[in-house]
Design goal:
Distance between the termini: 18 Å
Structural class: alpha/beta
Radius of gyration: 14 Å
Helix content: 25-40%
Number of domains: 1
Number of helices: 5
CATH class: Alpha Beta
CATH topology: Rossmann fold
CATH architecture: 3-Layer(aba) Sandwich
Mean pLDDT: 92
Order of helices and strands: EHEHEEHHEEEH
């Protein structure tokens, strides 16, 4: 199936967070989001918003920059939030247990280029780029798996 794209403009960090919270409601076990963008483009902000939508807004959601992976239990599934920036090989990704989590959890992967050949075919890629104003972001969503068509219908 050919790749499909959707571009969204978020004018403020609050709009980016609202998108993350809305997307969170559509996810199910086995969904993987690949979050790409330069440092400071909002990958962790988007992931935090999505996680808080499932576990409660007041919950502390630290960046997994140093721990590499943070996991969260929800009533419906486990969420794995991984920051692969410091990894040097695909073997290190396998040692984290991510390949098993791709099948059973919702996985949010920052710096997904470190996955190499381990990228799940059903993943949704979200590229974050600076927008025209300081806090604005442009989100480019790309997917091949048809199940994302329905999940993303409200934004198309």
């Amino acid at each position: 199936m050919p790749a499909r794209n959707l571009t969204l403009a978020c004018r403020t960090p609050q709009e980016t967070a609202a998108f993350g919270a809305a997307l969170a409601e559509l996810l199910e076990a086995g969904d993987t989001l690949l979050l790409s963008g330069d440092l400071g483009t909002g990958k962790s902000h988007l992931a935090r918003s999505l996680i808080r939508a499932h576990i409660g807004a007041a919950e502390d959601v630290p960046s997994p920059t140093f721990t590499l992976v943070q996991t969260y239990d929800t009533p419906a599934f486990e969420i794995w939030h991984a920051d692969l920036y410091r990894l040097g090989s695909v073997q290190e990704v396998e040692e984290l247990g991510l390949t098993e989590a791709f099948d059973t959890a919702v996985c949010l992967i920052e710096w997904p280029d470190r996955l190499g050949t381990l990228v799940p075919e059903n993943a949704l890629s979200i590229g974050l780029q600076p927008g025209p104003a300081d806090d604005a972001r442009q989100l480019t969503l790309t997917w091949c798996d048809g199940r994302w068509d329905g999940k993303l219908a409200e934004w198309r």
